Amino acid sequence: MLLCFRTPATFSFRCRPILLPPAFSPALVQTGRRYRIHLNCADSSNGHPLNAVSKLDGKEDKSDGDTTGGTTLSIIVIGASGDLAKKKIFPALFALYYDNCLPEYFTVFGYSRSKMSDKELRTAISQTLTCRIDQRENCSGKMDKFLQRCFYHPGQYGSNQDFAELHNKLQKKEGGKLSNRLFYLSIPPNVFVEVVSSASTSASSPNGWTRVIVEKPFGRDSESSAQLTTSLKKYLQEEQIFRIDHYLGKELVENLSVLRFSNLIFEPLWSRKYIRSVQFVFSEDFGTEGRGYFDSYGIIRDIMQNHLLQILALFAMEAPVSLDAEDIRNEKVKVLRSMRKLKLEDVVIGQYKGHQIDGKTKPSYTDDPLVSKTA
Ligand SMILES: NC(=O)C1=CN([C@@H]2O[C@H](COP(=O)(O)OP(=O)(O)OC[C@H]3O[C@@H](n4cnc5c(N)ncnc54)[C@H](OP(=O)(O)O)[C@@H]3O)[C@@H](O)[C@H]2O)C=CC1
Ligand SMILES: O=C1O[C@H](COP(=O)(O)O)[C@@H](O)[C@H](O)[C@H]1O
Which residue ranges run through the membrane (predicted)? Predict the structure, then answer.
């Protein structure tokens, strides 16, 4: 059987031959001579689908962010001027929109301290909403429609007044109907709590749900992580808080399980009997470039204890009894528990030095304006 994955990030289809054991049989839909995993927009790992309200379902979108009936969804990207918002969040929202996975009535609001008009936000994000989709129709038309739903409100992170003004703008777009609000915190962790305090006080939905997505890192260590949770819970119920690490949903990472457990060639060979050593290499060909949070958290907290351990666990775990999140988690935990503790003398830490390649000067880590000279 040929299994084709659609990647939300690149919109491309990738196919590979596989044999699916019963535990790994997703809903397959026959389309022509191929089978595709049927991506159901209503599916979500935590039972809180984004489109818990009516979906667009391919109907023509005429609402331009204003509602005349039904339920509305407002997605507020806090830190809209930043790197993550530009690189991942707006493109991901557009991907959802493109696939009709957003409700019929939705509005996206960018919020950060930088001064910007709606038009400037649209221009900024349109740079990263490229139609990277091979052979897909009407992408630029859909992109324009998506951009028309995007607005911007400048404000301070701890200001009740600024969030109250955002609330007024949201209400106008929501047209007095049942409104759900999703705040995506794409900001450095040191401002999480003040945003949640002001947003929940001044910009919570008056009649629908209010949810908050918090980007990792969730603190510097377990103590500060627990403190962060305690602080957030002064304003929110646990059910309103969604902690995100995008590697959990990254296509490359998800495909590892399929590659391992659904592949007749790899499955029997995937053991220490046949594999002598494994190296996980994470390499980026760019510097900090806009990632202002980077220096204070460091590379270990940024990607090692989360992204790379995630990959290691998926790579080394035994087959889970089912695809249930708990079963997968249990297998991962077994791997992590059985690992030898890392000793400091086994770790080598380095820092990029400035150098030249083909006559071009590459800056050192400390040359980056966002990094302290003493880092
Ligand atoms: N970039 C990435 O690839 C990833 C980032 N993350 C996490 O997502 C969050 C956002 O990341 P990213 O967009 O890269 O971060 P940025 O450093 O780009 O910050 C986002 C925005 O927050 C505001 N900001 C920056 N520094 C401060 C500060 N000290 N105090 C108050 N506001 C500040 C700025 O907006 P303005 O000045 O306009 O208010 C900035 O545009 C971080 O928690 C990061 O750890 C997680 C995964 C990947
Ligand atoms: O979470 C993070 O991940 C990105 C790398 O993500 P990828 O999907 O492009 O592999 C990294 O650049 C960023 O510093 C980190 O916070």
Answer: none
Residues with CB under 6 A from ligand 1: 79, 81-85, 87, 112-114, 157, 186-189, 191, 215-217, 290-293
Is residue 1 a contact partner of residue 9, using CB atoms and an 8 Å limit? no
Q: What is the CA(246)–ligand 2 centre distance, in A?
A: 8
Give the CATH fold of the 71-247 domain.
Rossmann fold (3.40.50)
Element (H, E) at 130: none
Helix axis angle, 192-202 relative to 222-232, nearest 10°?
Answer: 10
Distance 130 CA to ligand 2 centre (A): 19
Among 38, 153, 246, 307, the one annotated catalytic: 307
The helix, strand and coil proportions of the chain, stated in percent and rounded to the nearest 5, come to 40, 15, 45
DSSP states of 198-244: HHHHHSS-SSS-EEEEEESP--SSHHHHHHHHHHHTTTS-GGGEEEE
Minimal-distance CA residue to ligand 2 atom 5: 303
CB-CB contact of 279 with 355 (8 Å): no
Relative to the alpha carbon of 219, which ligand is closest? 1
CB 352 within 8 A of CB 365: yes
Kindly provide the ipTM of the predicted complex, given to two decimals: 0.96
Please report, for the chain, the start and end positions of each structural domain, with discontinuous segments joined by +: 2-44+250-285+295-331, 71-247
Ligand 1 center from residue 79 Cα (angstroms): 6
Q: Indicate if 167 belongs to the active site.
A: no
Note the pLDDT tens digit of each residue in 253-286: 888 888 888 888 888 899 999 999 999 999 888 8
Q: What is the pLDDT of residues 129-186, one digit of tens each?
A: 866 555 567 788 889 999 999 999 999 999 999 999 999 999 999 998 899 999 999 9
CB atoms within 10 A of CB 348: 5
Dihedral sign from CA coordinates of 315, 316, 322, 324: negative
